[in-house]
């Protein structure tokens, strides 16, 4: 017997322990071990088998690194056939998570028990495919097609207690799971359990129209993603086809989707989000400093959001403000935000009270900072102000405490120069709203030590963020790249587009919101102030702002808004655009959707390449992960650098060169890195491999 599945007979009940740390994925050896284990239990006359996971969970699902390689037997189907053909009962005992193939394994068993804290789900849709081992056929037979579609199309896990109510889990076990599951199996030996595949009670009489209506609601928010549609189609087969045919339908959908570009993109991001945490060059022994108390300087938009993230994750946090009034305003904003979550039913009153107690405030700068284990500064974006604050922090904070800045544009090195501990200064660039957005760009200063970087990384993870380490430069990675897109938006408006044409293309691509609608949300006056400070102009945007159209906050910007904040194209904006174009003697023409997309994405790709050349980002995947988690970029497109690879870097180079000339924009001249990769027939993904 392989070490991957341990076979432990306990009288009539045989335990099979999945042992493939850390998450017991169903790699070939596990499948083989399960098949051999079930057959051995049968040969040895066992009356019941309990499947359980060793370590922290039951099973996280298929081994995705085996995808795309020749399949090694046995298949999961063979394993499931053995389970379903077992002459007694096979019981899955679930702790931690049973996800994807892990849940499908459990669904093929005669019964399932779980600890109350476990969760189950079929997240395949999030990797761009459908459950491929019967999940879309067995789950509907257990809980009905509509309930199953909700779980499978969303991919979100549900708690074991909820699964118990739905009928997926037969019993919740208290105390030790293995002992409890073995006892449960013993008392149920000889009882009849109808296998999911043989059940018809939940699917017979399903009205296809009612199912389609539920699915239409579920698919509304999935934009251009293919896998949710595939999931809905597979579940539909559960009540329109016999079991075996349904399985075949599911298998066909799986094979098509898994080979597609979207699934490759989603898996690229799935693995990428793990890879970005492995920081090249970080010594093995670099240790993060313990943080018992966080102090946030400034309780404005960002400071409040950062403090909430800490409290949401159980970290005691104190906000320091300049005046009692500003402090109370800041705290009240956090409380109101939590209260909204309570009213919507997404947060319990008890959890709210807990978070509220963790969040305190003070106007005593020195006294509070002296107690901090980590300080994150989020005061006004002004170098003089920041330097004053850091000089004061340096004196007030205990020696060895890391001082972080949430600056979005200023140099971390210059900020650090105001202290006597530049090695302990780092950027921690959160994104707005900071209590919601997962991205955290940690900015490495020239002198930041590995301990400091490890502390920013670990603390970021602890408060629910995805930290990506970047280098110090204006705008860091994300804002620097989107900054190169903005001039093209202005040019496209002049040359023939209207705001809605541009947003339609970007939203069609899958962006949460197009750039002009985003501008209206953030406030157009902000961009105008930046242009003024930098001495740049954007004739169309400036003309819009000159009319007091600052965006949603003034009721109109690039669009006008109705009372429900629905955006509507505004003839006044069209008039402004036409006027400016005429004044500048730009002949307007019809611009294709392809050109709009290229002219918005290619400048970002080019800047991304420059960022790689400079070493500001370590790897292309860091850039992709930044865009997916901080800029509303659709994960199923894989991020800007992945997108460039799918276009082919030769095409990217040729188009960039063409647009650089046509739009007279030196920024679009292909970078040396793109020239080199295009000449070699290389890709971003292949760099360094
Ligand atoms: P904000 O104006 O909403 O908040 C700043 C707060 O800091 C104010 O409440 C102010 O009273 C307080 N403050 C100023 N000096 C202080 C001092 N010496 N001691 C204590 N409190 C002090 O500004 P916001 O938007 O929160 O931005 C803060 C920082 O975060 C800036 O560096 C900004 O660039 C950065 N940032 C902003 C983002 C955004 O979307 N708003 C996104 C990412 C970073």
From TrEMBL:
PANTHER family: 3-HYDROXYACYL-COA DEHYROGENASE, PEROXISOMAL BIFUNCTIONAL ENZYME
Pfam families: 3HCDH, 3HCDH_N, ECH_1
Keywords: Fatty acid metabolism, Isomerase, Lipid degradation, Lipid metabolism, Lyase, Multifunctional enzyme, NAD, Oxidoreductase, Peroxisome
Annotated CDD domains: crotonase-like
Domain of life: Bacteria
Catalytic activity: a (3S)-3-hydroxyacyl-CoA + NAD(+) = a 3-oxoacyl-CoA + NADH + H(+)
Family: Belongs to the enoyl-CoA hydratase/isomerase family.
One GO term (biological process): fatty acid beta-oxidation
Species this protein is from: Neoroseomonas oryzicola
Designated name of the protein: 3-hydroxyacyl-CoA dehydrogenase
The keyword Lyase belongs to this UniProt entry's keyword annotation: yes
Stored PROSITE patterns: ENOYL_COA_HYDRATASE
Metabolic or biological pathway: Lipid metabolism; fatty acid beta-oxidation
Subunit text: Monomer.
Subcellular localization, as worded in the UniProt entry: Peroxisome
């Amino acid at each position: 017997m392989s070490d991957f599945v341990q076979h432990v007979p306990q009288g009539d009940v045989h335990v099979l322990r999945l042992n493939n740390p850390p998450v017991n994925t169903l790699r070939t050896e596990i499948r083989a071990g399960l098949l051999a284990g079930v057959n051995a239990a049968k040969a040895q006359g066992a009356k019941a088998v309990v499947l359980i996971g060793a370590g922290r969970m039951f099973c996280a699902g298929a081994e995705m690194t085996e995808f795309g390689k020749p399949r090694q037997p046995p298949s999961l189907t063979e394993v499931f056939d053995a389970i379903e053909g077992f002459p007694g009962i096979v019981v899955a005992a679930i702790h931690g998570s049973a996800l994807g193939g892990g849940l499908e394994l459990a669904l093929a068993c005669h019964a399932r028990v779980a600890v109350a804290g476990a969760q189950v789900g079929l997240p395949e849709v999030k990797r761009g495919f459908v459950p491929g081992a019967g999940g879309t056929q067995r789950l509907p037979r257990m809980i009905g097609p509509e309930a199953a579609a909700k779980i499978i199309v969303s991919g979100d896990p549900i708690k074991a207690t909820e699964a118990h109510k739905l009928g997926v889990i037969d019993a919740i076990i208290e105390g030790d799971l293995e002992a409890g599951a073995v006892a449960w199996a013993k008392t149920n030996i000889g009882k009849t359990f109808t296998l999911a595949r043989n059940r018809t009670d939940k699917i017979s009489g399903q009205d296809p129209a009612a199912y389609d209506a539920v699915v239409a609601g579920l698919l509304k928010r999935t934009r251009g993603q293919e896998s949710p549609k595939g999931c809905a189609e597979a579940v539909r087969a559960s009540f329109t086809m016999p079991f075996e045919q349904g399985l075949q339908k599911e298998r066909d959908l799986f094979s098509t989707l898994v080979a597609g570009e979207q699934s490759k993109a989603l898996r690229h991001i799935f693995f990428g989000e793990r890879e970005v945490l492995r920081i090249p060059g970080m010594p093995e022994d670099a240790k993060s400093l313990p943080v018992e108390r966080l102090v946030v300087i400034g309780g404005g938009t960002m400071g409040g959001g950062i403090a909430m993230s800490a409290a949401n994750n159980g970290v005691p946090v104190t906000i320091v403000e300049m005046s009692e009034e500003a402090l109370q305003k800041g705290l009240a904003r956090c409380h109101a935000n939590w209260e909204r979550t309570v009213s919507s039913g997404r947060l319990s009153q008890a959890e709210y009270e807990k978070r509220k107690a963790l969040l305190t405030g003070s106007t005593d700068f020195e006294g509070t900072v002296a107690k901090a284990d980590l300080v994150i500064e989020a005061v006004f974006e002004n170098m003089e102000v920041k330097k004053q604050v850091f000089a004061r922090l340096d004196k007030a904070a205990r020696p060895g405490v890391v001082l972080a800045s949430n600056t979005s544009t200023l140099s971390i090195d210059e900020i650090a120069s105001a202290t006597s501990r530049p090695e302990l200064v780092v950027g921690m660039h959160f994104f707005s709203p900071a209590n919601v957005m997962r991205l955290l760009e940690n900015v490495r200063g020239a002198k930041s030590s590995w301990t400091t970087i490890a502390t920013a990384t670990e603390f970021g993870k602890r408060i629910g963020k995805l930290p990506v380490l970047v280098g110090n430069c204006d705008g860091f990675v994300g804002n620097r790249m989107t900054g190169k897109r903005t001039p093209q938006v202005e040019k496209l408006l002049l040359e023939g587009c209207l705001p809605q044409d541009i947003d339609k293309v970007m939203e069609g691509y899958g962006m949460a919101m197009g750039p002009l609608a985003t501008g209206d949300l953030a406030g157009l006056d902000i961009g105008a102030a930046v242009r003024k400070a930098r001495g740049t102009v954007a004739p169309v945007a400036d003309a819009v702002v000159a009319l007091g159209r600052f965006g949603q906050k003034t009721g109109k910007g690039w669009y006008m808004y109705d009372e429900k904040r629905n955006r509507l194209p505004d003839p006044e904006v069209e008039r402004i655009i036409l006027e400016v174009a005429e004044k500048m003697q730009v002949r307007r023409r019809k611009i294709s959707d392809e050109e709009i997309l290229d002219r918005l994405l290619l400048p970002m790709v080019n800047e991304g390449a420059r960022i790689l050349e400079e070493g500001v980002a370590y790897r292309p995947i860091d850039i992709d992960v930044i865009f997916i988690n901080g800029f509303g970029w659709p994960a199923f497109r894989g991020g800007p650098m992945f997108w460039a690879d799918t276009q082919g870097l030769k095409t990217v180079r040729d188009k960039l060169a063409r647009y650089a000339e046509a739009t007279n924009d030196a920024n679009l001249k292909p970078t040396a890195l793109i020239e080199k990769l295009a000449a070699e027939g290389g890709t971003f993904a292949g760099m360094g491999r």
